[in-house]
Amino acid sequence: MVNIAIFASGNGSNFQSIVDSYKQNKLFVNKIILITNRKNCYASQRAIDNNIKNYNFLLSNYKDKREYEESILKVLQKENISYIFLAGYMTMITDILINKFKNKIINIHPSLLPSFKGKDAVRDALNYKVYLTGFTIHYVNEEMDSGQIIFQKEVKVYKNDNIDTLRLRIQEQEHIYYWKIINKIIKGEEV
Ligand code: GRF
């Protein structure tokens, strides 16, 4: 069993589903910590409600991104963290963390990559009028949403979908699968 860090910036519904599986003893994890980079995001509230340690880092408190990630790194080392799982963490990871966690940083993105990279993936898929989108779990490298794909799941787009309905259906699937894929990665099982 390993210790893992979840990085989040917003609502934290994926963080919640990972914590739920952990609390039900389904996750092959000893300890979860949450790293956030926004003040009072709902993910932090979820951490408080679920008795999970939350560290908050504001980029504006640091000289630059380098110093910011170095202080995150110190916490990860202190907490003996083996894997980082991004779940709605809205900033790029740099070489400071990537070099220390080689193939140990994983992201979930709400599109079938390599289509629709970036923060507006759900809106972009709708605007493009694709009939199939979904989510992708992938390794993180220095380019946005570009690392090797680990797992993908498709979600149909309906004619009457708007951003909210489509995002919700994608997230429902994310919540079903992310913790299961996390388990496989940690156990070294084939996905
Ligand atoms: C998810 O849809 C994930 O794919 C993307 O950001 C969203 C985060 O949602 N990277 P939440 O904060 O987990 O509710």
Describe this protein's structure.
The protein has 191 residues and is an alpha/beta fold. The protein has one domain (2-187): Formyl transferase, N-terminal domain (Rossmann fold), CATH 3.40.50. Helices cover 38% and strands 23% of the residues. It contains 6 helices and 7 strands, in the order E-H-E-H-E-H-E-H-E-H-E-E-H. It has helices spanning 13-23, 42-49, 65-78, 95-100, 121-128, 163-187; strands at 2-8, 29-36, 53-56, 83-86, 105-109, 132-139, 149-156. Strands 3-2-1-4-5-6-7 form a 7-stranded mixed β-sheet, with helices on both faces. Helix 4 (95-100) links the parallel strand 4 (83-86) and strand 5. The two termini are 18 Å apart. Bound molecules: 5-O-phosphono-beta-D-ribofuranosylamine. Residues 8, 10-15, 87-88, 108-110, 135, 171, 174 line the site of 5-O-phosphono-beta-D-ribofuranosylamine (GRF).
Q: What are the SSEs and their pairings?
A:
Blueprint: E1 2-8, H1 13-23, E2 29-36, H2 42-49, E3 53-56, H3 65-78, E4 83-86, H4 95-100, E5 105-109, H5 121-128, E6 132-139, E7 149-156, H6 163-187
Parallel strand pairs: 1-2, 1-4, 2-3, 4-5
Antiparallel strand pairs: 5-6, 6-7
Helix pairs in contact: 1-6
The structure holds 5-O-phosphono-beta-D-ribofuranosylamine (GRF).
